[in-house]
Amino acid sequence: MSRQIRLNAFDMNCVGHIQQGLWAHPRDTSTGYTTLKYWTDYARRLEAGLFDGIFLADVIGIYDVLGGSYEAAVRGAVQVPVNDPMMLVPAMAAVTEHLAFGITANLTYEQPYLFARRMSTLDHLTGGRIGWNIVTGYLDSSARAVGLTGQMAHDDRYDLADEYMEVVYKLWEGSWEDGAVLRDRANHIYAEPAKVHPIHHQGRQYKVDAVHLSEPSPQRTPVLYQAGSSPRGRAFAAGHAECVFVNGQKMESVQEIVGDIRTRAVTQGRLADDVKLFLGATIVTGRTTKEAQEKFEDYRRYASSEAALVHAAASMGIDFDKFDLDEPVEAGNSAAIISNITAMNRAAGPRWTKRLLLEQMVLGSRQQPWVGSGEDIAERLIAWSDQAGIDGFNLSRTVVPECFDDIIEQVIPILQDRGVYKTAYSPGPLRQKLFGTPRLPIRHIGATHRTSVPTESP
User: In 3-state terms, what secondary structure has residue 255?
Assistant: First the structure.
């Protein structure tokens, strides 16, 4: 029997996210991103269509690798201007009941004590619908923005992340015991001091001696997302992540990543099903294959090659202006997203060129769109789920809001007819919807920092 498929809208609090240039399409509304109405309407639409959540990417810094300048990024709105994703969540949560919110936050530039409080606050305000996409960054411009000369080496950033996670686990799971909050009006006791503890952490990067400021939220620890596909990223995911985002055009490559992450998780005492895998995808669909193809050709006229190169240059750490169209691109010792370079080497060979890269970016990114009728797309989603072990999909926007309206109207009903998509939301916090319990299971590394272990967590 096929597994139940989950769908997230993949977006960012900006104009141009993944498919660069499509904001210029006359039907696109993403330039309204600075208004609350844009986001509350967005949230209502997704929940009415039974989407599982909206995942909000983020980046700290500006894309200035191409040509050594930020000008092309600004000109093409390549993830700049970009606003804080966290501030959107309470407004969207207020107009929905079940829609979940995945928030990207770069731990390299966030003090864990204050960050832990913000996430607990969001978990309270959403009734347990919050997730955190753990990232360590990949832009030198981010480091310079906070007074550093450059970012840490790729694997060193994951070492930092391991310690960071230890600190926030202690705050979320260990500072307040279960039962600490009494709300005893008669005796004027809101919480029992004996059940509230300071955490003591003396590490290489962080020193924290403090009580967590927030009382326990519905999930305590937010659902943990992560997207690293490098060997070091996979090792981190196997220990910490509950949901992992993967990208790739070839199913066999994705199968290998999925199998490797789940195997690594098992070696760390977890179950294979403790990790849900989400594939990044871009969908252009319609009532018929012909209609979908016509829509794709329409969208294609607005895609920007320059803006696509801006994004690719930053994510790979390569200034493509230094290479002619047919000159093999030398990646060098990039400290950016290593898995992106590996994926390009796999797709086009180790001596790929700028021309080959541009040929892949038909809608303004390297993510090749899936174009077809609702039936075609549903079949493809089911195939990826069955054959690659994918649990769900992060669907990048193209022209909003119609791209998600099309999926809701053309694809989801077919998935429901096939019995692989919900017809109603299940109750409870996000982690309960995904795994059957609102708390981290006792076999997760975060649970080892609990002062007391709740009986309901398997």
Answer: helix
Query: Locate tokens 């305000």: which residue?
Result: 125
Question: In the 8-state DSSP scheme, what is residue 99?
Answer: -
Burial class (CB in 10 A: 0-12, 13-18, 19+), 159: middle
Where are the chain's structural domains? 6-304+369-447
The CATH-assigned architecture of domain 6-304+369-447 is Alpha-Beta Barrel (3.20)
* pLDDT tens per residue across all 458 residues of the chain: 568 999 999 999 999 999 999 999 999 999 999 999 999 999 999 999 999 999 999 999 999 999 999 999 999 999 999 999 999 999 999 999 999 999 999 998 889 999 999 999 999 999 999 999 999 887 888 888 888 877 777 788 889 999 999 999 999 999 999 999 999 999 999 999 999 999 999 999 999 999 999 999 999 999 999 987 788 889 999 999 999 999 877 899 899 999 999 999 999 999 999 999 999 999 999 999 999 999 999 999 999 999 999 999 998 888 999 988 989 887 655 554 555 556 655 555 567 888 888 888 999 998 899 999 999 999 999 999 999 999 999 999 999 999 999 999 999 999 999 999 999 999 999 999 999 999 999 999 999 999 854 444 44
Burial tier of 204 (Cβ tally within 10 Å: 0-12, 13-18, 19+): exposed
With tokens 């498929």, the residue in question is 5
